Amino acid sequence: TMTDIRGDDRGADADHEAEAAAEVTQVLATAVVDSASGLGGEGRAGVHRLKVDEGLSVGGHDEGLNPFQLVLLGLAQCTVATLRLYADRKGWELGQIRVRVRLVQDGEAQQRIERQVRIAADLGVEQTSRLAEIADRTPVTRMLRSGVAVDTTMA
Question: N or C: which end of the chain has fewer CB within 10 A?
């Protein structure tokens, strides 16, 4: 066997196994949709439940949020929470926060999300500018911008 600089007699294979074990997959969120028929179903995330569906224009019954609305709500909620956490750390009172997000497509151009943030508090230019920077760095914003991989398996 090989002896590494620590004096171990574990060998290269053991080193590789130890490195692989250090790269543990961490589940950040889980969601499930059950559908018996049609395009809609029941969405669950943790203890929360909601109806999900497609709109009438694509053959659904419009009885719940569509997939794009769910993604946009996630972005809006993450923006509110991130801004509130940052402001609380700074001791800034923000009052009511409203985040409106829209998925748009201009002609044949790529889709994009427009996000508008309104804060009830009377903030200075520096504070407003800093909060805009923070909004652009929320976890969901970063995930969407990175083009997160989606791996599908059939069970």
Answer: C
